[in-house]
Each structure stands twice: as structure tokens, then as C-alpha cells.
From TrEMBL:
It is found in: Cell membrane. Coiled coil: none annotated. The chain crosses the membrane at residues 20-41, 47-71, 92-114, 120-142, 154-176. GO terms for cellular component: plasma membrane. InterPro entries: DUF350 (IPR007140). This is DUF350 domain-containing protein. Belongs to the UPF0719 family. It comes from the Bacteria.
Amino acid sequence: MDMLRPLLHVLTKKLQEITLITYLWLWIDEEALVMTIWGAVMNASIGFVFVLLLLSLGIILFSYLTPYSTFQLMKEGSNLNHPHKVAQAKAVAYELSGKMVGIGIILFCSIFNMHSLKKMVFWGLLGIFLELIIYYLFILCAPMKVASEIEKGNIAIAHLSSQICVASGLLIGSFASLS
């Protein structure tokens, strides 16, 4: 171990010199700095577009696979003269927001841990698929009919369903950090 210390010290110094030279070069060469900033902005913009597309895809898949029309029930819930419809809209909104947060956590983890757009999109798609599976396993194993309870306006079941999606998003997202 003592023999490696001088070598590690030299390597560390060289790495610090290279980093310092790079920063000085970017400071001196404004065009390179602008290109670096422009490249970062473009990468972030492209990633943002893909994340929005993946989030939209996840919401559309969840909405398509539920037996009730999510957005129609939320739209009908704006009429305050019908408390039942308001309760339905609240239940559906709770459930949808949990699904969105779960997918958002998966996408956050895929962005944070993947350094290429292909890997990010792959993990995002895989995560959405796994969250759909976990959600439907919950529906199959639940002692009540989850969809009909939410359609009736049962906010407790909707909240439980949304938290299942958030928890599954956290679990699936943690796997992205392993790769």
C-alpha cells in the first residue's frame, strides 16, 4: 500500500492539472465555452422533450387501461350541484396524480443515473411497463373492486391506489441506479 501512495499522489496531481487546464481553456476560449453551454442546453431540451413524451405515454396508457374515462369523470366533477360527481372527480384525480408522481419518479431516476438518451428512454419505458404491471397486480389482489370503488367516488381507495403507484415508482426507480 505504501508503494502505491506516491503513484496515487502523482495521478491525483495530474488529474487536477488537467481539470484546471480545461477550465482555463474554456475561460480563455469563449467560443468553446458558448458551445459547451449551448450543447448542455440542447441536451437538456432534448431530454425534457423525451421525458414529457414518456410521461404523456404513461398517463395515456393508464387512462386507456382503466375501465372508466378518467378525464371525462374529472370534467363532470366540476359541477358542484352533484356531490357524487365531485367525489368521483376527486377520487379519479387522486389516483391519476399518484400515477403521474410514480412515473415522474421513475423518469427522474432514469435521467439522474443514465448518461445517454437511449438508456434514459429504455429505463423510462421499462419503468412505465413495470409500474403498469404492479398496478394491475394490486387491482387483482385487492379484496375490493378498485375501479368500481374509485368510480363510486371512494377517495380512500383512490388514495391507496395512488400511493401504490408512488411506492412502485420509488422501487422501480431505485433499480435504475444499479445499472
